[in-house]
Design a protein that fits this description.
With 173 residues, this protein is an all-alpha fold. Helix content is 76%, strand content 2%.
Length: 173
Amino acid sequence: MFALFDSIFGLPGHPLLVHAAVVLVPLAAIGTIVIAFWPAARNRIGWITAALGVVGFFFAFFAKESGEALLETVRVTENVKSHAEMGDQGLIGAFLVGGSACTLMLFDQFVKERAKRDLPELSITRPLRTLIAVFAVVLSIFGTVLVINVGHSGAKATWENKELAPTVIYEGD
């Protein structure tokens, strides 16, 4: 679909993009768990966490698309086929993490805007904040597990039937 990231600097784009996703998505999930129940952290790193989640989602999307392009150029084994089929799960996982962080912050912004306008706190605000926080934590953990599973299957597909220690050729002076 997007040939933009088929290759980056002459290398397949998929491994480069994947590494960004597998770092940013769990980092955003950790941030989401922290901001869910710690208001001081939410004030300081809440929007940063939401931004990490959104950027992680986009990297997961580009990793999936570049993986589909790479699939046309590699020897397809059962592990590669299995990994390719899991690509959507990684995208869903990244969406859950980014969406959870954004939902937390948008609700927090809503509450703050009401307070700025001297409107009374709604009776449902605190229970709803707790419910959103609990769902955000659960979805962030679940989303991270999905991303990790996809990454693990990719590592398995990459390293199947290969020696773990690569051969290093050094041509000294």
